[in-house]
Write a structure and sequence with these properties.
This protein is an alpha/beta fold. 42% of the residues lie in helices and 15% in strands. It is built from 8 helices and 9 strands. It has helices at 2-66, 117-127, 132-146, 157-163, 190-196, 215-220, 233-245, 262-268, and strands at 84-86, 89-97, 102-103, 200-201, 208-209, 274-275, 280-289, 292-301, 306-312. A 5-stranded antiparallel beta sheet has the order 1-2-7-8-9. β8 and β9 (306-312) form a beta hairpin.
């Protein structure tokens, strides 16, 4: 009878072990299924968020196309957009006029010839806290980067510099297409880029928009190496202060800025270098669905309704 009782005990122990193993397997299977389900839901939400973000860029394009007045100012509808509910998610849009920033591609032409805007760039650097010697060097490094002779035997000191990097690479040899390219340009370390990024852009050449340019950009843009500086920083700060309440609908509105007279402001900037309209914009669109979020960044040319660059993250 003892042997039979021992066999019953072993059988019960074996059953308990099997049940424990099955429970563990079931728990693991349930957990794996839950993880897969969550991953599928996240993928679904991120996919939907992608299309929301991408659609937001197109919505911003339409908003800008509908804005057909003769000036562009941050008080307008395109610059103060609310979040847009879409089914179980939302789209957040932000549109910035980049025409109020200094264009790095105007420092030199593609033959390496230094242009008057080189001096404006040096002045801008000094206004944002970069000392003059480094500012002048940075302008030269940009000038060399724009020089289109990169496929010829190395003729510039910068060619040797880029050849010694790990890994080595060639300088651009053409206009900068993105501010991200500055990471490759000699001298433009993180500290320099952080100081300059709020004030600079790249792309096509357009007059600087008086309605969106900073006081620093308006002051610096007078410099061309030969021109007398007629407006000091206090004057350009007064321009910015005035336009916060009253947009400039035409250049002649500068007559209303306290302390300015037409003789000074009309001669302050190079011909056709300032205006009151935006031409190139940065569109930031964020799509959200539950836990899924995607962001789209686009550069957009209003005249011609053209997306110059698009990146979705």
């Amino acid at each position: 009878m003892k042997a039979l009782a021992n066999q019953d005990g072993m059988a019960l122990l074996l059953v308990l072990v099997v049940v424990a193993l099955l429970s563990a397997l079931l728990t693991e299977f349930s957990f794996s299924t839950l993880v897969d389900l969550r991953a599928t839901e996240t993928f679904r939400d991120r996919t939907k968020a992608f299309y929301l973000a991408r659609g937001g860029v197109d919505a911003a394009r339409m908003i800008l196309q509908e804005d057909d007045n003769d000036y562009d100012h941050p008080s307008e509808f395109w610059a103060e957009l609310p979040s847009i509910p879409v089914e179980d998610g939302e789209v957040s849009l932000q549109i910035r006029d980049l025409t109020g920033r200094f264009n790095l591609n105007e420092i030199a032409d593609n033959n390496g010839n230094q242009l008057g805007s080189y001096h404006a760039f040096v002045a801008l650097c000094q206004e944002v806290g970069i000392e003059q010697g480094l500012a002048e060097d940075l302008g030269i490094y940009i000038r060399n980067w724009l020089n289109g002779t990169r496929n010829q035997p190395a003729t510039l000191d910068d060619d040797n510099y880029y050849a010694q990097q790990q890994p080595p690479y060639l300088r651009g040899g053409a206009d900068l297409e993105s501010l991200a390219d500055l990471k490759l340009v000699r001298g433009f370390d993180r500290d320099v880029r952080e100081k300059l990024l709020p004030y600079i852009r790249v792309g096509e050449k357009f007059p600087i928009n008086l309605n969106t340019a900073s006081a620093e950009v308006l002051y610096a843009s007078q410099h061309d190496g030969a021109r007398q500086i007629l407006l000091d920083l206090a004057d350009t700060e007064e321009i910015v202060s005035y336009r916060q309440q009253t947009p400039f609908s035409e250049l002649n509105d500068l007559d209303s800025v306290p302390g300015l007279d037409r003789q000074r402001w009309s001669a302050a900037w190079p011909a056709n270098s300032v205006g009151v309209k935006g031409e190139i914009y940065q569109i930031s669109s964020t799509g959200r669905i539950n836990q899924g979020t995607r962001e789209a960044q686009a550069s957009y040319l209003k005249n011609g309704d053209k997306i110059v660059s698009l990146k979705v993250e």
